[in-house]
Amino acid sequence: MAVGDVSMPHMHVVQGVKIGSAEAYVRYPNRRDLVIFEFAEGTNVAGVFTQNAFCAAPVHVSKKHLEMGNPRYLVINTGNANAGTGKPGMENARATCYKLAELAQVEASEVLPFSTGVIGEQLPMERLLSGLQPALDSLKDSAWVDAAAGIMTTDTTPKGASEQFELDGVTYTMTGISKGAGMIRPNMATMLSFVATDAPISRELVQQLLKTTVNQSFNRITIDGDTSTNDSCIFAVTAQAGGTEISSVDDVRYSVVLDVLTRVMKRLAQLIVRDGEGATKFITVAVEGGNDTQECCDIAYSIAHSPLVKTALFASDPNWGRILAAIGYAGVKDLDVEKIQVWLGDVQICRDGGAAEDYTEEAGARVMAESEITIRVDLGRGQAKDTVYTCDLSYDYVKINADYRS
Amino acid sequence: MAVGDVSMPHMHVVQGVKIGSAEAYVRYPNRRDLVIFEFAEGTNVAGVFTQNAFCAAPVHVSKKHLEMGNPRYLVINTGNANAGTGKPGMENARATCYKLAELAQVEASEVLPFSTGVIGEQLPMERLLSGLQPALDSLKDSAWVDAAAGIMTTDTTPKGASEQFELDGVTYTMTGISKGAGMIRPNMATMLSFVATDAPISRELVQQLLKTTVNQSFNRITIDGDTSTNDSCIFAVTAQAGGTEISSVDDVRYSVVLDVLTRVMKRLAQLIVRDGEGATKFITVAVEGGNDTQECCDIAYSIAHSPLVKTALFASDPNWGRILAAIGYAGVKDLDVEKIQVWLGDVQICRDGGAAEDYTEEAGARVMAESEITIRVDLGRGQAKDTVYTCDLSYDYVKINADYRS
């Protein structure tokens, strides 16, 4: 079960975005597993994709099509990742674009394909292509919740975030969905996320906004350290709510949009961690006092990836020695352990590299019993800081991943 | 339970090495938890230690004492790692050396201390020091099996290897023990290992032999990716069986010793993986066709650390897509996935970056059902190769580490 409040908020409509879906029987019958996004003409679209060398066929195709110009359609299937599928996989990803382009009367390069699910099997093309027309027929602007459900794999809950904000008297909307619960780690961790706004933003700034906010959200979460072959995050700006274009970072409206997008992206990213496979706890690892953000990140990830720390969190065992060990092997050079402070919640567990004298097991156990825990580390050597979000490692993680294909 | 044959072999006596042990009640009453090694005068000793910045107090003291000259005694306690213990921890490690030195009439710097167990608690010094005399009183040359049992923590089985070999008509012995089942990863993975021989080898070559063989054994295993604060491996050469000193790598006898030591170290390292926490399978990850051994290692470890690969191995599920994904995110530059071949045992699962056409789930399932599995990867871009050993990730790993302190 997901940790904390993961409820779907009211998903405000984004003008210029329509969503359709269908049951295409990609892997299982009788489930919504095919989703189509339609963007109004003139929509600016930016994307970031997995760094995995074995990136999936649809990722190759989406990157190429995005370079060629703004897409009008996204087509997303769950149940099959179309990764590790060689040339037939590439052909299938392209064929999906061709077919949708033909039905929607656009160029094939105006379609971006996305897939998520099992790696290494070919898509059931006949069933998938047959689902495109019904999905197109169902296009409407209020289907964000259906889309969130339609892209789930091992997720236990659909994931959405939505905000409205005002610029110069005009009300705009920022709405997005994400999916992912396993194979989650930095470098595009989400597996899939789609965010859209009807605010008017120039193409250059759209890409910049996406990169900046992904680095504070999806690139700061980890569940199991496994970088997926399919991770993609798309940000679409329709500009359909009117107003003059925001084309400079010096425009005061830019910082408002940045704030809203950061909140939406962080929420969508954290929802993935809260729904982490087998997760019983939501963990914030905040590292401060570093020379640069890279070393703060290295240490935060070292803690967040340690199976020993994660099982101790699952057991509500304040076994803080495992946290110190993870700090120690993060590979940060010239670390002076005698300057290091560590807190579990509001309880200091490590002072100047050793056990804090006033620390008690009772105080540690009180923090560990909570379902949302912050591990804070001060390296005592600089001003940089960074934060990573993760979950614990439970029996159910093993169960889910040992059973996934059966 | 450990995987495969982990039985203790006949542990041949090493001339010039005596071993004693006692029940000091470091953590639990009525168990052998204190071990002492005594080396004959003139014994050459080499050591390698953890790279963890939070290395334990006894590691600091052992490194310093080893720089000062050859030790005559090792003193090892289990139950408490004396790590993350600050200045009191350093004082306790030194006090242990002083006390043993006083009882044995040597210099304190001729004693190396070792600890393994829970991190972050102070040693029960009164009980530990009281155990030293009984341990000294029990010194005898045939106590290797007792020592292997006396250094165990979460190990389910004591670990030993022993060989005899002949050089110029003289029979020599190489005998060693190791311990460790969790917090195991490269850069001195063993937690603790002690190996001795009575062959005559010069001090310089002792250190070189240790470094060379550690890199093919303890530095090539991983269970959970957690580098311990206490890892140490000691190689002691007593030269007590006679013969002229081996002082050059060109001496034909050197390569004989190197072969024997490599086998003994590999066996001791693999025993740790076979006894990995919750392990049900022993996995060999062999990567070949790389530009250099580093990239072969990077990919082998990426596979060996992936929780998704490890849970699939536990489930006997030939979910080879997870192996491809782990290869893809290993961070190796300019990887041409279309040149990559992957085998599960004798079954080729991936040909030229995609599914092998003749692969069947039945063939994959047959290999995955075995308790010893080799994953072989050919990168198709060079002559380098390297091999890493690991185990699967099971419910019991979580259980053991969620319960360890209770």
From TrEMBL, chains A, B:
The keyword Ligase does not apply. It is an enzyme of class 2 (transferase). The record marks 116-117 as: Involved in the stabilization of negative charge on the oxyanion by the formation of the oxyanion hole. Pathway: Amino-acid biosynthesis; L-arginine biosynthesis; L-ornithine and N-acetyl-L-glutamate from L-glutamate and N(2)-acetyl-L-ornithine (cyclic): step 1/1; Amino-acid biosynthesis; L-arginine biosynthesis; N(2)-acetyl-L-ornithine from L-glutamate: step 1/4. It comes from the Bacteria. The active site is at 190 (nucleophile). It holds the Pfam family ArgJ. Substrate binds at residues 153, 179, 190, 277, 401, 406. Keywords: Acyltransferase, Amino-acid biosynthesis, Arginine biosynthesis, Autocatalytic cleavage, Cytoplasm, Multifunctional enzyme, Transferase. One of its GO terms (molecular function) is L-glutamate N-acetyltransferase activity, acting on acetyl-L-ornithine as donor. It catalyses: N(2)-acetyl-L-ornithine + L-glutamate = N-acetyl-L-glutamate + L-ornithine; L-glutamate + acetyl-CoA = N-acetyl-L-glutamate + CoA + H(+). The record marks 189-190 as: Cleavage. Its EC number is 2.3.1.35, 2.3.1.1. HAMAP family: ArgJ. NCBIfam families: ArgJ, PRK05388.1. Catalyzes two activities which are involved in the cyclic version of arginine biosynthesis: the synthesis of N-acetylglutamate from glutamate and acetyl-CoA as the acetyl donor, and of ornithine by transacetylation between N(2)-acetylornithine and glutamate. PANTHER family: ARGININE BIOSYNTHESIS BIFUNCTIONAL PROTEIN ARGJ, ARGININE BIOSYNTHESIS BIFUNCTIONAL PROTEIN ARGJ, MITOCHONDRIAL. Heterotetramer of two alpha and two beta chains. This is Arginine biosynthesis bifunctional protein ArgJ.
